[in-house]
């Protein structure tokens, strides 16, 4: 990861207020999934996610990490890392102001990296014990480095095997960031969760939806099945606009 990428991550984490409360006061949720195969073909896949949260008086701080790595016959086929952070200030029982940051590095996307900072207002439309629904939105700023065109490609089908790319370009633009979150406790042990994110700007609009089913096995240990969709509206020719990821992993949650 380049030094400027480290700076982007540092900005995201600082913006989230992660250093404010002591780490011992935070609750967390972690997920880990992996698969390995050998024989006629060798492949491995690892997914991991971590989210930490702290609530102190009217403030709530959240930081998160997600990663995905896969290889087949010693060739890397997926490598993506994401860091995010958000701080909320509640001024009524349902309304709050927020500041949020996000950074992603995906070796197989149309961008070297994408990072954003945003601030705005949020409202909890439903805030019951079994069901929660919230929306938030506001202006922000996006930083990104776009990958250059594939110099080896003759037709779009050749692009995935490309090893030489032309120069890319940087993109900085004002965006609107919007989030919608939903949780519903189906049974005492089963919960469905969904989160939708949009970052809309003049250069590109990024959409991401994370749908998950969480089942408690015993105490803090559970199982999570997830389906993620990511979409960029403006990519280089021959690059897919939409990526999907299905995960199954063990879940550990402290409350």
As laid out across the biggest beta sheet, the strand order is: 1-2-3-4-5-6-7-8-9-10-11-12
Helix and strand run: HEEEEEEEEEEEE
Q: Tell me what portion of residues adopts beta-strand conformation.
A: over 45%
The CATH top-level class label: Mainly Beta
- Coarse morphology: globular
Count of separate DSSP helical elements: 1
Q: Tell me the distance between the termini.
A: 33 Å
Structural class: mainly beta
Average pLDDT taken over every residue: 83
Helix content: under 10%
- Which residues sit in consecutive blocks of at least 5 with pLDDT less than 50? 1-21
Q: Tell me the number of structural domains.
A: 1
Classify the fold: give the CATH topology: Porin
Report the oligomer.
single chain
How big is the Rg?
A: 19 Å
Main attributes of the structure:
mainly beta, 12-stranded antiparallel β-barrel, 1 helix, 12 strands
Please tell me about this protein's structure.
The chain has 255 residues and is mainly β. The chain has one domain: Beta Barrel (Porin), CATH 2.40.160.40. It has one helix and twelve strands; from the N terminus they run αββββββββββββ. A twelve-stranded antiparallel β-barrel has the order 1-2-3-4-5-6-7-8-9-10-11-12. The longest helix is centred in the N-terminal third of the chain and has 13 residues, at 3-15. The protein starts with a helix and ends with a strand.
